[in-house]
Structures are given as C-alpha cells and as structure tokens.
Amino acid sequence: MIHSSKLVFKNKKIKYQSIFTLVLAWIVATSTYAQVSIGTTTPESSAMLELSSTSQGFLPPRLTYDQRLNIPTTPIATGLMIWCSDCGHDGQIQVFNGQIWTNMAGGLASVPPSAVGDFRDGGVVFYVDPEDNTHGLICAIEDQSTGIQWYNGTNMVTNADGILIGTGKANTELIIAAQGPTETDYAAGLARAYRGGGYSDWFLPSKQELNHIRIQMNYINATAQAHGGDAFVENDYWSSTEESITQAFRRSFIFGDDNGQNKSSKRHVRAVRTF
Q1: Could you give the maximum distance between any two Cα atoms of the chain, in Å?
Q2: 130-174: pLDDT as tens digits
Q3: Rounded CA gap, 183 and 177, in Å?
Q4: Which one of 6, 133, 239, 258 is CB 3.0 to 4.6 Å from 210, fit for a cystine?
Q5: Considering only CA atoms, which of 182, 236, 230, 238 is closest in space to residue 209?
Q6: Which residues of 88-120 are buried (b: 16+ CB within 10 A; e: fewer)?
Q7: Is the Cβ–Cβ distance between 189 and 179 less than 8 Å?
C-alpha cells in the first residue's frame, strides 16, 4: 500500500521534472537557432529577426522632437531608430549614428518647423520662409559692435546692392571681396567674423532683412535676454545694402526709418544667418 503523502510527493516530482525538461528544451532550441520570425516560418538565414506581411508594416516608436531629446544619453545606442512625429514637414524616420541623429539618407535629421522668437542654431528666429517653414533667418543674440564704420576707410563701389530678404549673405561676400582685410575693421567683415553658436556663416543683413529684425524686435529681445544676450538699443544699425560709392543704408531702431548714411559713420552691427 502506498501512503497518500508519498503519492503527492511523487506527483510533484514528476511535474517539476516535466517543467525542467521543457525549459531545457527551450534553452537548447534558442541557443542553436537564435532567430525570431513573425509572419513566416522560414526566416532568412542572415536575419536574426524577420517580419513578413503583405498587409501590415513595421512601426517604430513614435516620439516628438522634445521626447527624443529626453531619451537617456548614457549612451544612446548606435543604430537606434525612431519616428519623429513633428520633425520636418510631416514627420521623419531618424537614426542615431553614434554621434548625431540622421535621416534615412544619412543627412542631418530635421527638427520641428521654427517660429519667430524661437532660439536655435546660435540665435533667434526673426523670419520664416512662408513657402518652406523649415527655413528662414536667425538674428544674433548680441550686438557685434556699438559703433563701427561701414567701409574699410576707402570709398569704393562694392556692388552690394541687394535689398530683398535673401540678399544679405551675397552682399556681405561682395563687400569683403572688395574691401579685403582687416575684415573686423568694418561692419560686414565684423558680422562674418562672429562665431555665435559655433557657426561661421554669419553675415550683415540686407535692407529688408534689417527691417524684419526691427519688426520682430520685441520677440528677439525676450529670447536673446533669456539666453544671456542683449536687447537692441534704440539706435541705428547698419545694413549690408550699399546706396552709392559713399553711402550705405542704415535703419533707426527708434523710428524705423532707413536712409543712406556716409560709410564712415559709426553704427551698431547685429549679424544674421540662415537656417
């Protein structure tokens, strides 16, 4: 006769042995065939993971740009992939390459469209392209001079006659090419020498670019001061737009008017750059 307690013990022993056998079998199976597949029983031999479907796709984690910034950086794994839902025009797949976030083509990952007053890339956004809100113009957070002449000491025609938005950079390059060294002795060269945010492509704004800066002055002042910069003074600032051999346009930040001034006059400088 078998005692009931011994029977219970024997049954438990058999149960534990069965569980152990199943676990052991799973370990052996996964160690000898380390592949995972969903939607297929015959994954490609070169793939550790294969997803197969004719009606569904792969969905990576969906994060906003701000949420992406909060991913723990200790460290971010090389190859980490996300969908940035508010980056670029309509969202973007982004991959961390070990140093920076890139798009699927390997280019620099997009950021959300900017608005006037945003702080980015070393300055404050004061103009957003109405046809492409991922591009525009940024103003430095501080003056580069409280009084510097427009020319290098010699009156000459530089052909820097661009007035419209988008012409300040070309104006600056024409001025520097014509006037030469020492670049920091005159307004356009001083603007180009600025290194705010680590960028080296700053320039002196054109007549209309400078006008937009004044229009958005209050937004720029608030953001600039919040990031250790300075507010505009109620004074005259140089544009890069040349009026004649002896004069260039300046704009008053008190009244908003602009007119030609002698290139020898000393005015404030505030550099800009594109994004």
Answers
A1: 122
A2: 988 889 999 999 999 999 999 999 999 999 999 999 999 999 999
A3: 10
A4: 239
A5: 238
A6: beeebebbbeeeebebeeeeebbbbbbebbbbe
A7: yes
Q: Dihedral through CA 173, CA 175, CA 176, CA 179, nearest 10?
A: 160
User: What separation in angstroms does the CA of 93 have from each of 58, 66, 157?
Assistant: 12, 15, 49
Q: β-strand 81-84 against 62-63: which pairing, if any?
A: parallel
Type and span of the H or E element at 51: strand 49-51
User: Is the CA virtual torsion 15, 21, 24, 30 positive or negative?
Assistant: negative
Report which residue type is found at 247. Answer: Q
pLDDT in tens, 195-225: 999 999 999 999 999 999 999 999 999 999 9
The predicted model scores a pTM of 0.69
Total length of the chain: 275
Q: What are phi and psi of 23, to 5 degrees?
A: -60, -45
